[in-house]
Design a protein that fits this description.
Number of domains of chain B: 4
Largest sheet of chain B: 7 strands, mixed
Strand order of the largest sheet of chain B: 5-4-19-18-17-6-7
Largest sheet of chain A: none
Oligomer: heterodimer
CATH class of the largest domain in chain B: Alpha Beta
Low-confidence stretches of chain B: 15-29
Structural class of chain A: mainly alpha
CATH architecture of the largest domain in chain B: 3-Layer(aba) Sandwich
Mean pLDDT of chain B: 91
Low-confidence stretches of chain A: 1-35
Strand content of chain A: under 5%
Order of helices and strands of chain A: HHHHHHHHHHHHHHHH
Strand content of chain B: 15-25%
Number of helices of chain A: 16
CATH topology of the largest domain in chain B: Rossmann fold
Helix content of chain A: 40-55%
Distance between the termini of chain B: 49 Å
Radius of gyration of chain B: 29 Å
Shape of chain B: globular
Shape of chain A: elongated
Radius of gyration of chain A: 25 Å
Mean pLDDT of chain A: 76
């Protein structure tokens, strides 16, 4: 009996241990695949850690640093974000005393949430420009079929309630067969939307219908999106081994509005291929389209695999080796073997920044800037373990 | 009794022994030691909405063993973010007022005599129901009138629904306030009847024409918080406030500059400032060109040329004329115009003056483009309540609704109810006399100028019912009282807007079961409908007002907008999401939504969409109108076709008997009392902090003037107008203009509870019935008085 009890406790202990390990690793394991962290919590961290004192998001916040809602494609991958956080460290620390901000330490969960938030705002569109949208409407010849007059057949007035470009993408997706037929009949070529043209068009149509209640969409779930991607047959063509593998193509649009435009542009080609394969055009609900979009954006988060050999060079060239080895002045990075992800790397580098800055000043070493490629390589090198 | 020396010594000895045994004098004041400690009570904090004024502040009520014991601000409510004024805290005294009406009362003496008999709710409902039924049977449902006061939300819709299915067009909105929202200015320039906001916390320069921003503003705490933001909330920018007002108010004291002005002449000053801005070419030319109508002279479809605001103001309101009317030096007028035009964003705000005076202040905002911009006049979106289903009406109702309203408001240019016309027509019987009157949150015998006028009207109405929870001047004069719960005991919605245009819905929930035999008026109305049966009953399918509230809230839930209240970072979060077309609420079902509403205190939608012209300009030209085309059709018949009638202009009040009555009367309100709450001792104790006045009504007199009349500080004086006189305490105040006397409004109830009855005097009793021809409201600054020692 005693042996059975001891065995049971032993098994229980192991199970708890495994569970604990999983919960600790959860963020990163998830992060390697999909959106990590909690987006809303990330916004809270952004606010309470005073990032907002200098950085605004579309004008919400301080003006001391760049507006992170409108930054160009500077952080598409986690490694880019790590590099950005590291590189702007000295500049930021110089500005913080003026704003009376103490350096905030950030724990791993908080960093994961911040990452999630910063990714989320990247794929949201900046508000469109109605006057530009008007121009798009006029130059693209939408007026040949559509009217802005209320109650007229084909009027766009009713569309003004749809704020989210995904809803437009969904409506256009479902409406496209009719539209294609009509355009063929009128001998109008398939219109192409570039850049923010779709967003501007939406802004224009919205501005014409101020009294209409807006229809908003709940943020999509990437896991569910992946499921839809398979279920609706997208994966038939966009498989990893095909030329249409989306992550490999590497030019997914930056924002949802651009995605809506790109999907529209892509419709004729897509249908042609689907017809050839004998596939039916799937019908998508708005929420399915949101989930699908969340999935498509999440797959952009993958970094290419790092190279430990190049990582070693980074470790040497960036002078990390001066301090971060066994018996060195700084923490021994060999202990991080197998534990690093971009999030944990960002968190360690952030918290360690001020101390290192001081050390580097004392040693008269200039601040070592780092690229995203170097970050991945360095992570790979450290994960393999410093020999 | 004779006390000998020996007796005295004996007593002394006895006292000494007593002290020695008792341990000394200091112990006398100590409570006896308790053998065991009192058990701790069960504490909880319940979020609800303060009902002390129209501010709509969120509060947390501390409950100990089911008793409300303290009130603090709800930090999640965006209107006040945890702040609270003394009125909010004093709500406990409203709840526990020992003189509250405790059950339905039926009059047994003569009207106003104050003799009542308590009756049951069943009897009360039966009594009203019989009267209502009889009126309908006689084919006179239109003779039921509801006089409603200041409140918000679904309750108003419920009243209107009741009248609609009953067959009366007579809901009369009696919200008399000079310091109220200047609605008419908005209508004349932007064609809008709905509420608007002044985003003054985001302006650089604020020009206030007697707006009581920090005294008795529409939303006092929200205004105070906004003022803090305006002054110190923006790094490197301190807003400048110039207060133009006849009296040095708290707002004037806190302003960067106080400019005393003759009462009632704010409108002509605004036109004088407009004159200088135009003359010096300082206006926003692009805004004026693109977004306004009637600035330049224009030609109509009949090829007739009309004068525009530009030429009209330049010819009619030179600074010399304006200076002579207002008493403000020319240099100051010129300086103000330059400051206002060049410190952008700037904003001009006023009070509910006469319509074209309001329009004059509005025109200043049109000149600098302060419409629908950050730091400007904003038109918020409405709160998406689920609309009530359209009710079916029987023949009697349809017939009743065909009748003219008693205040003939359909002929009113502004579509604003006219309580004075209701009173006047009730007296004259033209078009008809009401037979049943319901009073809901309305006390015209006290809170309207010339209260006797309403009393004469009430004498003509056979059956009057009041729903007031407290005895007041008007309730004393009714036939039946059906006391409502106090705000801490009832369900209610409280929709309003932040200064930055965000819609906010506070949820008022009962923090305690009713203390007395009172009932929520919403529930009573549903019961009445049920007792009347037929289509009326069918129009009210709800069990009680809480069900009505839940019904309305479904619309908000289904609108997929906004979220329940949260911390400040939640605000930006919701806004960011919605801007991108996303909505990620804190709830997943309606039940969860409801629970969170009760837990957090309400819902809001922290987004304002600029540039939606159709919402901002509802004028015929779809622009900001310096020349009001909207009102032109209505005024043509009464005022001829002079262009000046449709442009911002000044309507001078002709001074009467200036020699006999040498002073202009200026009535003001303090933060503590604005007509309600006189039954709360805490508020009576802080009435006039600048003069340490409490439990009284006083008259503020300039010290030099007082010395001329041999009046000393604290003397009792009579203030007499051609319409009446009141005896008040004279207070010498440097902030009073020499020829103006200032009296606070709030006290002077002729009846009520022990803490309000016959405390002070009501200055509205000094006013006459000179009404503005367009709004039917009394004219501010139009009453002259004399003062003499009592």
């Amino acid at each position: 009996m005693k042996k059975i009890l001891s065995f049971s406790f032993g098994v229980l202990f192991i199970l708890i241990g495994i569970q604990f390990w999983h919960s600790v690793q959860g963020i990163e394991r998830k992060g390697a695949q999909f959106v990590f962290g909690d987006v809303k919590e990330g916004w809270r961290i952004f606010t309470i850690k005073k990032c907002i004192a200098c950085h605004s998001i579309w004008g919400e916040g301080g003006k001391g640093g760049p507006d992170l809602g409108t930054l160009p494609e500077s952080y598409k991958t986690p490694s880019q974000l790590v590099a950005l956080i590291w590189n702007h460290g000295p500049q930021m620390r110089a500005k913080m005393p003026a704003q009376k901000i103490l350096f905030p330490r950030i724990d791993k969960k908080e960093m994961a949430d911040l990452f999630a938030f910063l990714y989320f705002i990247r794929y949201m569109d900046e508000p469109g420009i109605p006057s530009e949208g008007k121009r798009v409407l006029e130059t693209k010849g939408c007026g040949k079929c559509h009217s802005l007059e209320k109650g007229v057949k084909g009027d766009l007035d009713q569309w003004g309630r749809y704020v989210n470009p995904i809803l437009w993408a969904q409506l256009m997706w479902n409406h496209a067969p009719q539209m294609e037929e009509e355009m063929k009949r009128k001998e109008i070529p398939w219109i192409q939307f570039k850049g923010n043209e779709m967003v501007n068009l939406i802004a224009y149509i919205r501005s014409l219908t101020p009294e209409v209640e807006r229809f908003y969409l709940s943020p999509g779930d990437p896991l569910s999106g992946e499921n839809i991607f398979r279920r609706k047959g997208c994966s038939e063509c966009h498989r990893s081994e095909t030329r249409l593998d989306l992550p490999k193509i590497g030019h997914l649009p930056n924002t949802i509005g651009q995605l809506a435009g790109a999907m529209w542009n892509h419709f004729p080609q897509m249908w042609k291929e689907m017809e050839e394969k004998g596939m039916k055009r799937p019908f998508l609900t708005s929420q399915e389209m949101a989930d699908l979009t969340a999935y498509l954006f999440s797959i952009q988060y993958f970094d290419l695999p790092g190279d430990a050999v190049r990582g070693r060079s980074v470790f040497m060239n960036k002078r990390c080796i001066f301090c971060h080895v066994k018996g060195g002045k700084g923490p021994d990075l060999s202990k991080l073997k197998g534990q690093l992800s971009p999030v944990s790397m960002a968190q360690i580098m952030w918290n360690h920044g001020p101390e290192m800055w001081e050390e580097m000043r004392r040693a008269k070493i200039s601040w070592q800037r780092i690229t995203d490629r170097e970050v991945i390589d360095l992570i790979e090198y450290l994960n393999k373990g410093i020999p | 009794m004779k006390l000998s020396r020996r007796d005295f010594l004996k007593m002394g000895g006895g006292i000494g022994v007593g002290i020695a045994l008792g341990g000394g004098f200091w112990k006398w004041g100590q409570p006896p030691p308790s053998s065991k400690l009192l058990p701790p009570g069960i504490e909880k904090w319940v979020p609800t909405v303060c009902g002390q004024c129209l501010g709509g502040c969120g509060i947390l009520v501390r409950m100990i063993d089911g008793w409300a014991t303290n009130i603090i601000g709800n930090p999640l409510h965006p209107i006040n973010r945890g702040a609270l004024c003394p009125k909010g805290i004093a709500a406990l005294q409203g709840l526990y007022d020992p003189d509250r009406i405790r059950s339905p009362l039926k009059r047994i003496g003569k009207r106003g005599e104050g003799r009542w008999q308590p009756i049951s709710w069943k009897e009360a409902i039966q009594e009203i129901s019989n009267q209502l039924r009889e009126l309908r049977e006689n084919g006179e449902p239109h003779k039921l009138v509801v006089l409603g006061g200041r409140y918000r939300g679904l309750m108003r819709l419920l009243w209107e629904r009741f009248l609609e299915v009953y067959g009366s067009p007579n809901y009369i909105d009696n919200q008399f306030r000079w310091d109220g929202i200047p609605m008419e200015g908005l209508f004349l320039t932007q064609g809008i009847h709905t509420l608007f906001t002044f985003d003054f916390e985001n302006v650089k320069y604020l020009l206030s024409f007697s707006a009581p921003l920090l005294d008795s503003y529409w939303f006092p705490i929200h205004a105070l918080k906004a003022f803090g933001q305006f002054r110190r909330g923006r790094t490197g920018q301190r807003g400048r406030l110039v207060q133009i007002e006849p009296r040095l108010s708290i707002t004037g004291m806190k302003a960067d500059e106080w400019i005393p002005i003759q009462p009632g002449t704010e409108g002509i000053l605004a036109l004088g400032i407009a004159h200088m801005i135009i003359k010096e070419g300082l206006y926003d030319k692009e805004f004026v060109l693109k977004n306004t109508f009637g600035f330049e002279n224009w030609v109509d479809s009949k090829e007739q040329t009309h004068i525009g605001f530009h030429d009209f103001v330049l010819s009619e309101f030179p600074p010399q004329r304006v200076s002579s009317k207002t008493g403000i030096p020319i240099d100051t007028i010129i300086r103000l115009s330059r400051e206002f035009a060049t410190n952008q964003p700037s904003l001009a705000i006023g009070y509910r003056d006469r319509p074209f005076h309001q329009m004059a202040v509005w025109a200043l905002n049109g000149l600098v483009g302060a419409i629908d911009r950050r730091g400007g006049i904003l038109i918020p979106k409405s709160i998406p309540f689920q609309p009530f289903p359209s009710p079916s009406k029987d023949r009697a109702a349809r017939k009743g609704l065909e009748r003219k309203r008693i205040d003939e408001v359909r002929e009113s240019p502004f579509g604003i109810d006219q309580p004075y016309l209701f009173a006047k027509n009730s007296i004259s019987g033209i078009p008809y006399r009401p037979k049943i009157l319901f009073l809901y949150y309305s006390n015209p015998f006290f809170s309207n100028p010339c209260p006797e006028f309403f009393q004469r009207a009430f004498d003509q109405i056979p059956f009057i019912v009041s729903f007031s929870p407290y005895m007041d001047d008007t309730t004393q004069y009714v036939d039946l009282i059906l006391p409502d719960h106090t705000p801490l005991e009832r369900w209610q919605d409280d929709p309003l807007f932040l200064n930055n245009g965000f819609p906010v819905l506070g949820i008022r929930q009962p923090v305690t079961p009713p203390i007395h035999q009172t009932r929520a008026t919403g529930d009573v109305l549903i019961d009445l409908a049920r007792s009347l049966g037929g289509e009326i009953e069918k129009a009210f399918p709800w069990k009680d007002f809480k069900e009505v509230l839940l019904y309305g809230l479904k619309g908000i839930y289904e609108s997929r907008r906004g979220d329940v209240f949260g911390l400040e970072y939640d605000e930006a979060w919701i806004r960011m999401l919605q801007r991108g077309g996303w909505w990620d609420p804190s709830y997943k079902s309606f039940e969860e939504f409801w629970e969170l509403l009760l837990e957090k205190g309400g819902w809001w939608d922290p987004i304002y969409e600029f540039g939606e012209r159709e919402r901002i300009y509802k004028t015929p030209s779809k622009k900001f109108e310096f020349y009001s085309q909207g009102i032109k059709g209505v005024l043509l018949s009464s005022k001829g076709e002079e262009d000046s009638s449709f442009l911002p202009h000044w309507e001078e009040s002709v001074p009467k008997e200036e020699e006999k009555y040498p002073f202009i009367l200026n009535i003001f309100k303090t933060m503590a009392l604005d007509g309600r709450n006189a039954n709360q001792p805490w508020l009576q104790g802080i009435l006039g902090p600048h003069l340490f006045e409490k439990w009284a009504t006083w008259v503020e007199i300039n010290p030099i003037t007082a010395s001329k009349y041999d009046i000393s500080d604290g003397d009792w004086v009579w203030v007499e107008s051609p319409h009446g006189k009141i005896k008040v305490k004279a207070r010498l105040y440097q902030g009073a203009m020499p020829h103006v006397v200032n009296i606070p409004f709030g006290n002077g109830h002729r009846t009520g509870g022990r803490w309000s009855k016959k405390i002070g005097e009501n200055p509205y009793r000094l006013l006459g019935l000179e009404l503005d021809s367009l709004t039917g409201q009394p004219i501010h600054g139009n009453t002259r008085v004399k003062i003499y020692k009592a």
